[in-house]
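Task card 7
Instruction: Convert sequence to structure tokens.
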Amino acid sequence: MEDLKEHLKDTKQKIKEYVNLRIQLLKLEISGKLADGLGAFSFIILIGMLGMLFLLFCSFALAYLLGELLDSNAAGFGLTALLFVVLAVILIMLRKKISTYVTDQVLESIGDELDD
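Output:
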């Protein structure tokens, strides 16, 4: 009878240790995934900022080039602005398709991560 009580006490202690270890492992896995996600997010933000600077300087170059060709800097900047308005209208018209595509890609990526 004493052996049974001792065995149950040991088993209970081992179960507690196992549960605590599983909780620690889960915390470490979540921390790792969070760190990976933040690293990827930071990289995307950095690339986005560099892309915006590139677009800004290319826009100025295009505006001055068109200004040279038309002998009017105002016309060059106006045509460049018109180009961006046309691009904005196209993006607004395609926003549903773009939103659906991005959502599908994110969900697919999350699904792939959960499968691992």
